[in-house]
Structures are given as structure tokens and as C-alpha cells.
Design brief:
14 helices; alpha/beta; globular
Amino acid sequence: MFTTDAHPAIVIGGGIGGLAAALALHRQGIPVTVHERATSLEPVGAGLALAPNALRALDRLGVGERLRALAAPHPAIGLRHPSGRWLARTDTATFEARFGDTVAAVARAEVVAALVDALPEGTVRTDSPAALVTPGSGTEPAVVRTGDGEQAAALVVAADGIRSASRGLLFPGHPGPRYSGFTSWRTVVTPARRPEAVGEVWGRGQLAGVVPLADGRVYLYGAALAPAGARAADGDEKAELLRRFGTWCAPVPQLLALAEPGRVLRHDVRDLADPLPAHHLGRVALLGDAAHAMCPFQGQGACQAIEDAVVLAAPLTPSTDPAATLPGYTAARLPRTTGIVAGSRRIGDLVALRRPAAVLLRDTALALAGLLPARTLLGRSGPTYDWQPPALGASALDASGLGASGLGASGLGASGLGASG
């Protein structure tokens, strides 16, 4: 580790990506402090889908089995037309046989709790805003301003989200996130019984998704083309959801009717359509949405942040200088995440189709694809889901994976809207 009076590692941001990074560093024997500006770690969001690639990374962090145990099993997932007609469908047993694991749909709060519980007490400091002052260099520490004053650090993990001030300081010429054209809604309801139809429903320029969680709860999400900043005319986003999706196939309207109006979250979807030149500068590593914010149409936002965390920490030990390992982090993560950002945007382009002829052509293509052997259909997701995390102490360059685009509806209804890290 950098031999000055610098703090070994500081994480800016206590979201899933920041917490995963802290746990990865802790497991490598590196003291770390997380600064989160919010007064508590009550998560923003409702649920998320942990794909096999993320679950393998969470296994490296020691919390994978805990989260798998919280996932609600369901026999099949699929993609439907608003009429209820199935466009594509696969059983989860086939999915697990292909990828060696499931997609674990869990409440975001459960992921946060699992990561925090595995960290030493006092690691996470809430109500503690922090800002990067200087990124440091091979011979100088990074500097972070906290409530306790300026602190020197051998490593700074900037997990400060899509509006990352750290990213702006490191790469001031980058255009930053762009509006995708979509707004999204998320909520959790508790129906009398678990829905039989699980997955997504695609309409004209909009979609809705149904994901069972543990304890009988169901995560609902929707997305639709809308002007940036638009909101329900009367402020009632539940009513807006029912207006848009109330005539769609069961169980979408019935579940939406159970939503509590005050617990329906709505956010515009933005992404970093222009890749950064690097995911690091000096002694600062950008992680999660700060590095590669993406549209949620592959359900990979949080998954990629968790991958980032493991790859970042893998080559570090208490005697390693982080400045020497960060170029390997960029080399491993930039190509993979750039491909996934682009793939998520391409799927969004398919959802965005509104002209009847174009929608008919899309749905026909999806239905024909659904007739392909499951091995062929699932193989399209291989570059994303087959990723293997580096072993502890391995070079980050070993974690570059196979590249990833996941183009098309290969997830068969697991967009995991709002699941970014």
C-alpha cells in the first residue's frame, strides 16, 4: 500500500456498488471507510435481479448464498404481448442448466443489508458527504474532503452515482449522462397469492414487468417513452400506471391496483452513451453508475457495479500500491461495460418502437426467436452471464470476460428496471 500517512481506502457513496467495493477491499485486508451523504442506508428502489455473473461475484464477497436463499423460486420467465400472448418463454431449470445459476430477484434492501452486515462495524458512515478534491498520482495521495476535513487516501473509490461529481472532476470534458427517452416506475406490492405469469409485457413504446420476491411480495416496474422531467398531471403516479397499463393482460392491472400511491417511484432513465476514456485517474477508480450508467433493459446496472468491485480489489493487498493496479482495472472493465451499455440501449430501441407495422415486425421476430432451441436462445446471453470473477489476488486483466452485449430479449423478461448500482 502507498507508504505515506494516507488513509488506505476511501469509498464515496454507500450504494450497492460502493458497499460491494468496501467489502471486496476488506476481504483483501485493506482498511476502508465508506462515506454516504444520506442519513441512513434506506435504499432508493424496490427490487433488482442478480444475474449469474453478479451472483458469482457475490460469492467472492461471501454473501452469495445468503441472497440466493432470499430469492423467490418461479418455474418460468417470459415475454408477452399486452393481450397476454406469449412471445418467448423459458423455464428456469433450463436457464440454470445453461448458466450454472439462477437470476435471484431480491429486494434492494436485502442486498444492502447483506453487504453491510459483512463489513466491520463503523466502516459505513452515513450523513457523511464526501467530495474528491484531487485524484493524486503515483507519488502523491488522492485527497477527499469530508466532514472531518480533508483526508489523504492511497485509493479512492468514486461510487457516487450517475451524477458523479468525481467523474466531472476527473473528466471535465465528458458530456455526462444523456436522457434515454424513457421514464420508469417501480414499486412493491403484496398480493393474496403469487402471480403465475412472470416476466415482461412489451407494448408500443412501453413495457411492464412482474417479478416475485420473498415473503409473497412482488416487484413491479414499468417504462415508457416520455419527455424528460414529465410527471403525472395530478401527481398520482399510481393512477398514471393504471392509465397506461390498466387494460393490459393479467396480472399487471390487478397488481398495480394494489400499489400504495406514495410508494410508487418514478425516475427518468439516463445513461453514459459516450464511454469514458478510462475508469480511473491517478488514485481514483470510478465504479458503477459513476463509470458506466446504463439503461435498465438488461438488468445489469447493479450486476456490473458488483463485478467492478471484485475486479478492482482482486490484485490489491495491504502491501500493494493501488496506483499500479488501476490501469488493469480500466483495461478489464471499460470494454465489457461499454458493450453492455450499448446492448442495453439497443434493447431500449426495440421497446421504443411505436408504429404498428414496426411493432408487429418486432413481435413476430421475438416470437420466431422464441421457437428456437433454448440452448440457442440462451446462448445470446452467454457473453454477459458467463463472466467469471477473478480469484483473490489475481490480476484484474484476467477478469476482462468475453465481452458483452446481450443484444435482444435474451433475458426473457428480466430487465430489472432501476437495478443500476
